[in-house]
Amino acid sequence: MNKIIGLACLLVLLISSCGDDLLIPKPPTYLRTDFPKHEYVKINDATTYSFELSKAYFAKPLTYKGELTNHKEINLGPLNGILYLNYYPVPNRDTLVRYINLSNDKVDEHQIKATKIKDQNFVFPDKKVYGTLFEFEGNVATNFQFYLTDSASHFIRGEVLMNCRPNYDSLRPSLNYLKVDLLHLIETLEWKKK
Fold first, then answer.
1. How far does Cα 91 stand from its chain's mean position?
2. Phi and psi angles of residue 133, each rounded to the nearest 5 degrees, phi first
3. Model confidence over 159-174: pLDDT tens digits?
4. pTM, whole model, 2 decimals?
5. Please, is 74 exposed, middle or buried when counting C-beta atoms within 10 Å of its C-beta (0-12, 13-18, 19+)?
6. Can you list the positions of beta strands (E) in the chain?
7. Which of 12, 29, 30, 54 is an S-S bond match for 181, by CB 3.0 to 4.6 Å?
8. Domains and CATH numbers, the chain
9. Is 18 helix (H, G, I), strand (E, B) or coil?
10. Which one, of 185, 103, 180, 100, lies nearest residue 142 by Cα?
């Protein structure tokens, strides 16, 4: 009797599985990354510096206590992130050293999560622009930080924050695109003459 019930169940299972609704495994999916072409527009700060920024991004000056500052918040548009540019005047050599050390300390804060930190130095003596770009690999809060100075009276610190949970593998195409624009910003930065 048990053999007959088992055979009947097997027969029903075989007959019901012969339909057109076969399960087909889905292929793996990938993030679609349609980024705009790299085109740039010059951004002028009235008193301190200028640089070229991607047309896909939007820069706005920041205010403090109702007063306009030389700091900028750059919305990274299709990349869903923010680039903060903080400008500080440098009254003396000790202040410059303090700003550079502060920037390096901010980089060190991410050593725990970063799998690798690459740095790239910039030296443009004809424009008096010197600095370092730090690129963080891994699931970190910021993937790029940099500072630029003229070694005498200007200092800019930049930091990129993406508006999403840090997942380096998923963000890599966006970060590669952004790196091109950051390098262009750094290479086109100029200090205003006093």
1. 30
2. -105, 130
3. 999 998 888 888 899 9
4. 0.81
5. buried
6. 40-44, 49-54, 58-64, 67-75, 81-89, 116-124, 129-137, 144-149, 154-162, 190-191
7. 54
8. 40-191 (3.40.1000)
9. coil
10. 103
Place of tokens 């050293």: 97
Residue 40's Cβ-count burial label (10 Å; 0-12, 13-18, 19+) is middle
What are the distances in angstroms from CA 165 to CA 80, 127, 168? 11, 38, 9
**Both tokens of residue 121?**
């130095």
pLDDT for 7 beyond 90: no
Stated as kind and residue range, the H or E segment containing 103 is helix 93-108
Residue closest to 182 by CA, chosen among 53, 73, 45, 55: 53
CB atoms within 10 A of CB 171: 20
Q: Are 69 and 26 contacting, i.e. CB atoms less than 8 angstroms apart?
A: no
End-to-end CA distance of the chain: 101
Phi and psi dihedrals of 10, rounded to 5? Answer: -65, -40
CB contact at 8 A, 185 and 51: yes
CA distance 128 to 191: 8
Report which of residues 27 and 60 the model is more confident about. 60
Q: How far apart are CA 59 and CA 76, in angstroms?
A: 9
